[in-house]
UniProtKB/TrEMBL annotation:
Keyword flag Oxidoreductase: yes
Descriptive protein name: Short subunit dehydrogenase
Entries under SUPFAM superfamilies matching the protein: NAD(P)-binding Rossmann-fold domains
Organism field: Actinorugispora endophytica
A GO term for molecular function: oxidoreductase activity
Alphabetical keyword list: Oxidoreductase
InterPro entries hit by this protein: NAD(P)-bd_dom_sf, SDR_fam, Sec_Metab_Biosynth_Oxidored
Pfam family, one: adh_short
The UniProt record lists the keyword ATP-binding: no
């Protein structure tokens, strides 16, 4: 039986994936913050298939906390022998810079540091799977020079656009580290082809809230439709790094020194977020 781990698995695309893989007969670990939302998801997935309850686990975690991310890794390593697919779909959009109780910029931790900790921390479980895959819902295509290595948490001149581009590029480089650590791993940097109808969880400005409320129902995809390409990546993984928007494959962004930049990111996380 495959083990599928989905962060952000109680809402939107994450919940759609969790329902699909439970109905497909897989073991699914749903990572989120709301037990009530998980219970509702499980009730829908278990309709007509009581075995889904035994194959689902809810793991509560706030992935804007490095400590919570590390605790989650330890839990998964203790309770599971392999992870066949890790889908990184957690999202909480902040338009303004926010510092967590751990003293770090929240979006940087949620959208990159937690993913780094999960991908590297679960490398052994991914290696133990027959055809492992990581799908990272960080929209590909950021500039190769989007990362400010001198100020990763953007203490100076923070903008939403700069933060977003930096996280996206960092997650593309995470694929360099991931595929080196797990030979045969399929690492997919993915973004939806167009707007997805969802709750748009986050600390949003009035303009973004209004745009989401108006455009979502008009042009947005249903989460169940948006995630079909991800299901394909999990069911038929292709080893190596790749990038997609929806089902359309994109060229990987290649910088002048990607290996060194990936190593710099790893060093920064290990230095800035020491274990314990």
């Amino acid at each position: 039986m495959r083990t599928i781990v989905v962060t952000g698995g109680t809402d939107g695309m994450g919940a759609a994936l969790a329902r699909h893989f439970l109905k497909a007969g897989d073991r699914v670990v749903v990572i989120g913050r709301s037990r009530a939302k998980f219970d509702a998801l499980l009730a829908a997935a278990a309709d007509g298939d009581p075995s889904a309850t035994a194959r689902a686990e809810f793991a509560a975690a706030d992935l804007s906390s490095a400590a919570d991310s590390r605790r989650l890794v330890k839990h998964l390593r203790t309770h599971y022998e392999h992870v066949d697919a890790l889908v990184l779909a957690a999202s909480f959009i902040r338009q303004r810079r926010h510092v967590t109780s751990e003293g770090h910029e929240a979006s940087w931790v949620l959208f990159f540091v937690s993913k780094y900790l999960l991908v590297t921390g679960l490398a052994g479980l991914l290696r133990a799977a027959g055809r492992p895959v990581v799908v990272n819902t960080a929209v590909p295509g950021a500039r190769a020079d989007a990362i400010d290595f001198g100020d990763l948490e953007l203490t100076r001149g923070y903008t939403f656009a700069k933060s977003n581009a930096q996280q996206r590029r960092a997650n593309e480089l995470l694929g360099v580290l991931a595929t080196r650590g797990v030979p045969g791993l399929a690492y997919v940097t993915w973004g939806p082809a167009r707007l997805v109808r969802s709750g748009f969880a986050g600390d949003l400005g009035k303009g973004m809230k209004t745009a989401a409320a108006v455009l979502g129902p008009l042009v947005g995809q249903r989460p169940d439709d948006a995630v079909r390409p991800i299901i394909g990546f999990v069911d038929a993984p292709s080893p190596g790094r790749s990038a997609y928007r929806g089902a359309r494959k994109l060229p990987l962004t290649v910088g002048t020194d990607d290996e060194r930049d990936a190593a710099r990111l790893a060093e920064a996380v290990e230095n800035d977020f020491p274990d314990g």
